[in-house]
């Protein structure tokens, strides 16, 4: 049934992709590929720094508690294990705090880096995204409906926030069990991005693991790029459910803006089949001519 919380996000969100047998198979089987955040094209994305806004003793406590929880089998003497009673000062303390912060960064990456990310956008009509993510307009843009279900892991990307996580929030989360602190950490880890990317108007769905899994959003439409071949259109139309809508993207006259028009499924499939039959016949004629020559 439709979600009562749909107003928190757009009713439609979009995913640009190149055409491939794999992308078509995922759509046909109602599966989604959740990306590994460590492989994003922006190395600053999902790669925050930790602000060591805690006294050294609290940093040590945080490392000890987190290490014992996440790495129970780590032997004493490992770089991830720290002596709670260690006393340092001056320059030595600065180096020690740096080591503690580096260990916290690794622990955070171990915990959250295994998650999967589905990157979506609020717009289908960006020429730049068609070029970057849809094989230079030869691919497609998938339309997802957000009004069905309760998508608690779907959030808008924030382009106006620091690329840092407070060590105090990590302490409140891991040592004191604060759900509010955990939410702030996850927000900074997954949803903070540089202002230069704001044209994408990105939304993200965070999954428990990366890789292929069941679809969490319903596909309701497909937009075909300016250079998308008729046979590709026909394949999508033949495979996806009948209630799926299909639209052809075109450029508006005297501008760089994009618009779209509705496509008739049966007409497109018939045209593609006719074109295919003509090409097969043409190949036979050309082969016969070569034999005669």
Written description of the protein model:
By secondary structure, the protein is α+β, with helices and mostly antiparallel strands. The protein has helices spanning 21-28, 56-70, 91-112, 127-133, 167-174, 179-191, 230-239, 265-292; strands at residues 12-17, 31-34, 49-51, 116-121, 140-145, 154-156, 164-166, 202-207, 211-214, 218-224, 245-251, 258-262. Strand 10, helix 7 (230-239) and strand 11 form a beta-alpha-beta unit. It is elongated.
Question: Which features would summarize this protein structure in a list?
Answer:
293 residues, alpha+beta, 3-stranded antiparallel sheet, 8 helices, 20% strand, elongated, disordered N terminus
Distance between the termini: 67 Å
Secondary-structure element sequence?
Answer: EHEEHHEHEEEHHEEEHEEH
Beta-strand percent range: 15-25%
Mean pLDDT: 85
Structure summary, number of beta strands: 12
Tell me the number of helical segments per DSSP (H or I, 4 or more residues long): 8
Helix content: 25-40%
Largest sheet: 5 strands, mixed
In terms of structural class, how would the helical and strand content be classed? Answer: alpha+beta
Residue stretches low in confidence (pLDDT < 50, at least 5 long) are 1-7, 71-85
User: Any idea what the shape is?
Assistant: elongated
Strand order, sheet with most strands: 1-5-10-11-12
Radius of gyration using CA atoms only: 26 Å
Architecture blueprint of SSEs:
Layout: E1 12-17, H1 21-28, E2 31-34, E3 49-51, H2 56-70, H3 91-112, E4 116-121, H4 127-133, E5 140-145, E6 154-156, E7 164-166, H5 167-174, H6 179-191, E8 202-207, E9 211-214, E10 218-224, H7 230-239, E11 245-251, E12 258-262, H8 265-292
Parallel strand pairs: 3-7, 10-11
Antiparallel strand pairs: 1-5, 2-9, 4-8, 5-10, 6-8, 11-12
């Amino acid at each position: 049934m439709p979600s009562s919380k749909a107003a928190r996000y757009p009713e439609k969100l979009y995913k640009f992709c190149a055409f491939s047998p794999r992308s078509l198979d995922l759509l046909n089987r109602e599966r989604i590929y959740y990306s590994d955040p460590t492989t994003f094209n922006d190395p600053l994305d999902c790669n925050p720094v930790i602000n060591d806004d805690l006294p050294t003793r609290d940093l040590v406590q945080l490392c000890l508690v987190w290490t014992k929880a996440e790495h129970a089998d780590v032997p004493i003497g490992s770089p991830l294990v720290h002596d709670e009673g260690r006393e340092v000062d001056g320059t030595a303390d600065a180096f020690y705090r740096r080591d503690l912060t580096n260990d916290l960064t690794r622990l955070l990456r171990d915990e959250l880096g295994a998650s999967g990310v589905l990157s979506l956008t609020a717009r289908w009509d960006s020429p730049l995204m068609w070029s970057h993510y849809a094989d230079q307009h030869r691919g497609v843009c998938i339309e997802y409906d957000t009004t069905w279900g309760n998508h608690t892991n779907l959030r808008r990307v924030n382009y106006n926030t620091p690329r840092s996580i407070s060590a105090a929030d990590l302490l409140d989360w891991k040592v004191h069990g604060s759900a509010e602190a955990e939410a702030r950490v996850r927000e900074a880890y997954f949803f903070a991005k540089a202002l230069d990317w704001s044209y994408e108007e990105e939304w993200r769905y965070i999954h428990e693991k990366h890789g292929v899994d069941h679809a969490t959003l319903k596909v309701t439409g497909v937009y075909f790029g300016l250079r998308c071949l008729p046979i590709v259109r026909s394949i999508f139309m033949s495979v996806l459910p009948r209630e799926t809508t299909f639209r052809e993207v075109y450029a508006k006259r005297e501008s760089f803006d994009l618009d779209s028009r509705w496509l008739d499924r049966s007409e497109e499939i018939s045209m593609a089949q006719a074109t295919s039959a003509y090409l097969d016949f043409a190949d036979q004629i050309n082969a016969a001519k070569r034999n005669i020559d």
